[in-house]
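PROTEIN DESIGN WORKSHEET
SECTION A - STRUCTURE
LENGTH: 209
TOKENS:
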């Protein structure tokens, strides 16, 4: 599913506010940021209350959807009044151009309002990019990206990466269908299987001194 990031939209309007300076009168960019912040408050309240995905989707439908419908109408109006090449004009155009993807998160409570978690997950890879800037082959670079994706997805789902990878590598040769693979992705895997394998290895190898 293709989602656009509300944090990026908000950042565009922040740039406009910053460029205007502290003494500037509140304008379109300030209003846009306030509206986006109200969307984030809905998400924060849902997390604080520990809501399940179905409940989150319901809350979004009840609270976020009307805000978004009103916001889009404002964006359409602002588009006619702002200078297109100004920072505010660019922010408005950016939001409208991505609108269909910006509202996808309403469809499923498991989807996020932004990609901040993904950006945080790839940060370790980005920090060390100079170490592998000159990957010898495209295949090697792809393999590296795949491994990082698997490891970070495992971490995001509360799995210990080493034992998850070890379990996956032991089971992968016997997998045949897409369903076989799908059952072992971090989101779906039976954690008890990993724990059993881990305990079995510990028992056979002995407790490290």
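SECTION B - SEQUENCE
RESIDUE ASSIGNMENT:
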């Amino acid at each position: 599913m293709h989602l656009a990031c509300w944090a990026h939209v908000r950042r565009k309007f922040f740039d406009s506010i910053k460029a205007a300076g502290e003494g500037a009168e509140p304008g379109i960019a300030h209003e846009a940021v306030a509206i986006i912040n109200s969307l984030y408050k809905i998400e924060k309240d849902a997390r604080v209350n520990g809501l399940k995905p179905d409940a989150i989707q319901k809350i979004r439908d009840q609270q976020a959807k009307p805000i978004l419908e009103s916001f889009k109408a404002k964006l359409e109006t602002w588009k006619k009044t702002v200078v297109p090449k100004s920072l505010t004009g660019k922010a408005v155009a950016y939001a409208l151009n991505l609108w269909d993807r910006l509202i996808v998160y309403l469809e499923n409570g498991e989807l996020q309002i932004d990609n901040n978690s993904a950006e945080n997950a790839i940060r370790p890879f980005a920090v060390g990019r100079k170490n592998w800037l000159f990957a010898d082959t495209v295949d090697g670079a792809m393999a590296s990206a795949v491994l990082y994706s698997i490891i970070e997805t495992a971490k995001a789902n509360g799995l210990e990466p080493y034992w998850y990878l070890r379990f996956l590598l032991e089971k992968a040769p016997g997998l045949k269908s897409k369903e076989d693979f799908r059952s072992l992705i971090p989101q779906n895997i039976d954690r008890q299987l990993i724990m059993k394998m881990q305990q079995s290895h510990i028992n056979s190898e002995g407790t490290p001194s």
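SECTION C - NOTES
The mean pLDDT is 88.
The chain has two domains: 6-114, 117-205.
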